[in-house]
Amino acid sequence: MSDLSEELGLLVRDIGEAGVAEMACSPGLAAAVDQHVAALRDLLPDTGPESLMGYLEGFADEAFQRGWWPDSTRDWEFIRIVAVCWLMRQTAAE
């Protein structure tokens, strides 16, 4: 497994899944994620799992190259990752 694949797994688990769970008790986070979900649906012609993972891989790679790293802040990147994971969960349930 490459370093980026390992990092993606950590992002999905530690940020994405945790953020999706946190949305239940955080209306502000839920609203922000909803805005990102709408933007992703406009941006991506396909929101299937493979397309979303491809987007997340490119997004994460670009963010890491800019020096971003996940920490305890609820920054734009954090919310975008949660939105991608929320969409992945929704498409898996369909």
Taken from the alpha-carbon principal axes, the silhouette is: globular
> Portion of residues in helices?
over 70%
Q: Using the CA coordinates, give the radius of gyration.
A: 12 Å
Order of helices and strands: HHHH
Which oligomeric form is depicted? single chain
Question: In percent, how much strand structure appears in the residues?
Answer: under 5%
Mean pLDDT: 87
Low-pLDDT sequence parts: none
Give a count of the beta strands, DSSP E runs of length 2 or more.
0
* Largest sheet data: none
Structural class determined from secondary elements? mainly alpha
> Number of helical runs?
4
Terminal residue distance: 29 Å
What this model shows, in words?
The chain has four helices and no strands. The protein has helices at residues 3-23, 27-43, 49-65, 76-93. The model has no long low-confidence stretch (mean pLDDT 87). With 94 residues, the chain is mainly α.
